[in-house]
Amino acid sequence: MSEIYIDADACPVKDETLRVAERHKVRVYVVSNGGLRPNPHPLVETVVVPDGPDVADMWIAERVGKGDICITADIPLAARCLESGARAIRHNGEVFTPANIGNQLAMRDLMADLREADPFRQGRGKPFAKADRSRFLEVLERELRAALRD
Fold first, then answer.
1. Per-residue pLDDT for 63 more than 80?
2. Backbone angles phi, psi at 143, to 5 degrees
């Protein structure tokens, strides 16, 4: 049976994820290092991990497997999920795949190097839009249906 793991720190689509999960009766793990109000829904388990770099990511990566879905913006976590046979989706509905994860990891590393070389370089992503939320819902529904068939 599929499960959904949410890398919950700064995740803008927790409610949308629960709506889709509820429709399919799929368990949802909301993983963070605190600061989130627990959701009383019976399908949701709020997991609070200790503070520290990538502790939530490690918790998810150790448990996610084939047929599961991870909602994350963290590219290395997405890569680990794909390696374990899970699916990974960004908050804006972009799907991480074996075909695109290598390029995304390389771009992430390149941007980190550029920021390190020029500390005044302040790159900001585009703001989360209504269209992103809509695309996320559509993609999560499609990916969850496919995962449930696997």
1. yes
2. -65, -35
